[in-house]
Sequence to fold (240 residues):
Amino acid sequence: MKNKIFYLIPYLFLVNFNLFAQPQVPISNHYGVKFLSFKYQPRVHFVGLSLPLISGNAVSEKFSGIDFGLFLSGCSKFKFYQRAHLDKYSIRVYNFKGIAISGALTSTHYFHGLSVNAGLTSIEYFSGFSIGGISSFNEFNGVSLNWLGVMSSKSYGFTFGGVISGSIKFEGVSASFILSGAKHFKGLSIGTINLVDEEIFGVQIGIINYCKELYGIQIGLLNIAKNAIIPYTLGINLNF
Fold:
């Protein structure tokens, strides 16, 4: 009898807890054209055209369509806000699908589509095509062209940065006029200086090429591969 009571009490507690639990509110779809608005609408999926010019669409949890912001597009939330304890004041779009055009800042959590921005693009998870000044991604899939630089934790695809193209883990083609680098690299790296902290499976082409472990080819004025038979070479170095 005692054992039955022992098992009955937590069972009743869980049942009561579920009875008082708040149901998940479904996302509702809103359609049309949206202008300037700063009120954040959770659980709302806006589908259509956003023409706020100043704020970016930045008022719904999800957005599908075209967003044009003279200064901001997507939202005013980016990585540095959280450190400054301003995250709760930022207006955001959590999931963006479509075209975002901005003069200064484009920032969302998930982005799928085309982003054109002369300033900073800061997106956690990006898939698509990005044209900008400087871009920062947590995970990137697609093509990114930047007049200043592009940095990410994980990149899959093609990236170009005028000054720097860098990633912790990179698979694809990385190009830069100055520095192309990664910690772990698979593919083709092109730059004046190519740096890979750990291993590269592929090709480095530049004036100075460096890697700790080379499994491929280096073509440049000075090639450095710590694991190669000849660690320092001029012109070309191979190691497989």
In short: Helices lie at 2-20, 79-83. The longest helix spans residues 2-20. The chain has two domains: 28-160, 163-240. The chain has two helices and eleven strands.
